Amino acid sequence: MLKKIGELSLKTGVHIETIRYYERLRLIPKPGRSEAGHRVYSESHAKRLSFIRRCRGLDFSLAEIRYLLQTAEADNPSCADVEKFSKKHLDLIRAKIRDLRKMEKTMKTLLSECQGNRALGCPLIDVLYEG
Amino acid sequence: MLKKIGELSLKTGVHIETIRYYERLRLIPKPGRSEAGHRVYSESHAKRLSFIRRCRGLDFSLAEIRYLLQTAEADNPSCADVEKFSKKHLDLIRAKIRDLRKMEKTMKTLLSECQGNRALGCPLIDVLYEG
DNA sequence: TATAAAACCTGTAGCTACTACAGCTACAAG
DNA sequence: CTTGTAGCTGTAGTAGCTACAGGTTTTATA
Asked: Fewest CB within a 10 Å sphere: which of A18, A115, A127, B107?
């Protein structure tokens, strides 16, 4: 049941150093300690840590996760708030996708200039450099 | 013709502090100085800086840009090398897009759980927290 | 011409989210 | 009894800026 940091790391997929880092930031509560001073975690730590990891996987910032954790562990979390919050986040993700798609397009165009055309320097660089 | 840092910033769209930062990193050569010690830039600085900015806009790292600059200013830049380099970068952009699309999908699913279902806590958080 | 505002200078510290040491102790296996 | 693994603390490094503090210089206005 109770775990040391290595097991917790394996179970949750969060690096040991990162777990300690989250503790410093108070994203997870201070665990108990064994006699030798080793951290001892309970199931609730594992849950919280997995939550954080899932949120990170969705590109939420640690500040955002702090808010989500508060909400998740509140007595009556306001679903409406979370929804609004998450919609904004979804918009952000979509904006990032749009930006990257633009880059992809430009890169593709630049690369197509490259084809065959190798006699006089690099057209790709020329376009970027001469503007 | 010769510009002070403010004008260069306006012309290239790179923040003043960033220009000085790039100088520290030797991404742009040290400019001349006026009598009072103010930086004085030439057209070649502007060109180089714009190149950096365009590359940043394509998500190239400063280390990558360093390489591209070297190549761009070499006597006979190897187009084949640049092409290979850029293809790898394009792959990276595409990988990022894929990741973000996955996130987008997940977020959409999570948000759809939210609809209407507000009586018993927040399903979005439940999935992340209990999942 | 006086003065105030804007622009410049250097140097340092802060941001995000980790990651990587150095240098130590604890503990289990052979 | 030694060796290896796992844990500990504390600090510094990473990328790419950004934001001061505390000073000088230039420029615009009264």
From this structure: A115
What's the CA B50/C1' C8 distance, rounded, in angstroms?
A: 22
Please state, in angstroms and rounded to a whole number, the distance separating the CA atoms of residues A106 and A109.
Answer: 5
Strand C closer than 7 Å to the CB of B4? Answer: yes
DSSP-assigned beta bridge partners for residue B33: B39
Sign of CA dihedral B94, B95, B100, B105: positive
Q: What is the pLDDT of residues A49-100, one digit of tens each?
A: 999 999 999 999 999 999 999 988 887 778 888 999 999 999 999 999 999 9
CA distance B36 to chain A (A): 32
Which residue blocks in chain B are alpha helix, DSSP H?
5-12, 16-24, 43-57, 62-72, 79-114, 123-130
